[in-house]
Amino acid sequence: MAAVRSKICGITRVEDALVAAEAGADAIGLVFYDRSPRAVSVQQARAIIAALPPFLTTVGLFVNASRCEIGEILDAVPLDLLQFHGDETSAQCEGHGRPYIKALRVRPGEDIAACCAEYNQASGILLDTYVPGVPGGTGEAFDWSLVPANLGKPVILAGGLTADNVRAAIAQVSPYAVDVSGGVEASKGVKDAEKIRAFIREVRGSA
C-alpha cells in the first residue's frame, strides 16, 4: 500500500503550521471563507506561508467565492493548490492558474462517481460529511462504505477524522490522502500539537 498523504486544514497560526511541518504533514490548508471560525486574512496567510520549510504544499480553501475575490487572494498569497468547498461548477474551479481539488459532501443516495466526473480537470476529489447548510469542518464522520471503489481521481478523505479512527478509515477507503481540521484542535482554529503528531503517526503507521 502506498503511503497515504496528510493535510492539516484550518491553520490560523504560524506555530501550528510549523508543528504540522515538523510532524511530517504533506500539506496545510488555509481557509478563505469569512463565515468559518478558521478563516484567515491575507496577512495571516502570508505570515504562515513565509515561515514554512520547502516541499510543503499550501492549499487555499474557498466556498462559492467570486473569480475576482480568488484572483485578489492569489495575487497576494503564494498558494500551491486551490480547494473548492462550495457549490462551484467545474468552470468556476478552472482558470485560476493553479491546480485544484473539489470537495463533495457524501450522503446516502448521492451518485459520487457522477459528481466526480463533472470535475474532470480536478487534481483530486475530497470527500466530506454532508451536513445541511454547513460546507465543511463539521467534525462528523460519514459512512465510509458509501465511497465508490474507483472514482478515477485521487481521493482525499475528510470528515470527523482523528488519531483514533484514521487508521480504520484508511483501511476501508484506501484514499490517496486524509484531511483533518477539528480532529487535531484544542479549540476552533487553534491546533493541539500532540494531536497533530498523533494523527500523522497513525497515518504513517497505516502503510
UniProtKB/TrEMBL annotation:
A family per Pfam: PRAI
Superkingdom, natural source: Bacteria
Catalytic activity field: N-(5-phospho-beta-D-ribosyl)anthranilate = 1-(2-carboxyphenylamino)-1-deoxy-D-ribulose 5-phosphate
Entry keywords, A to Z: Amino-acid biosynthesis, Aromatic amino acid biosynthesis, Isomerase, Tryptophan biosynthesis
Domain N-(5'phosphoribosyl) anthranilate isomerase (PRAI): 7-201
Pathway annotation from the record: Amino-acid biosynthesis; L-tryptophan biosynthesis; L-tryptophan from chorismate: step 3/5
CDD domains (UniProt xref): PRAI
Keyword Isomerase set for record: yes
Molecular function in Gene Ontology: phosphoribosylanthranilate isomerase activity
EC number(s) recorded for this UniProt protein: 5.3.1.24
NCBIfam families attached to this UniProt entry: PRK01222.1-4, PRK01222.1-6
Family: Belongs to the TrpF family.
Protein name: N-(5'-phosphoribosyl)anthranilate isomerase
Organism: Azotobacter bryophylli
Gene that encodes the chain: trpF
